[in-house]
Write a structure and sequence with these properties.
single chain; 111 residues; alpha+beta; 3-stranded antiparallel beta sheet
Length: 111
């Protein structure tokens, strides 16, 4: 997990303020502290190896999603939900769609 988190953080070098940037971006002790503070890390596996990591910290009324995701505007969320899923209109209206920095950059190149 640490290798993936730190590799992903490199994509945000220059975006993450210099006073918050350090190498490695997340040392093992910090990961342990994040877990102790309630961040739940989910992983995706391919062929038995971790390929992606996402951290979520549920605080009741709000949840913090970690590792570089941004909220998409409702028009873009609606387009993506209609493109990739078959869900009711009401679910589209109430869904939250997040995208990572790489996806956001790819969309800028398309426009």
């Amino acid at each position: 997990m640490l290798a993936i988190i730190n590799d992903a953080a490199r994509a945000y070098r220059g975006v993450i303020p210099t006073d918050r940037w350090h190498e490695p971006y997340m040392p093992a002790e910090e990961l342990a502290k994040e877990i102790a503070d309630g961040v739940v890390f989910w992983v995706a596996e391919q062929e038995g190896r971790i390929s992606a990591v996402m951290g979520i910290q549920d605080k009741g009324d709000v949840a913090l999603v970690r590792n570089g995701f941004a909220l998409l505007p409702s028009s873009e969320s609606s387009r993506l939900l209609k493109t990739y899923w078959s869900i009711p209109a009401r679910q589209i209206e109430t869904s939250v769609v997040l995208a990572n920095g790489r996806w956001m950059e790819s969309q800028e190149r398309v426009r």
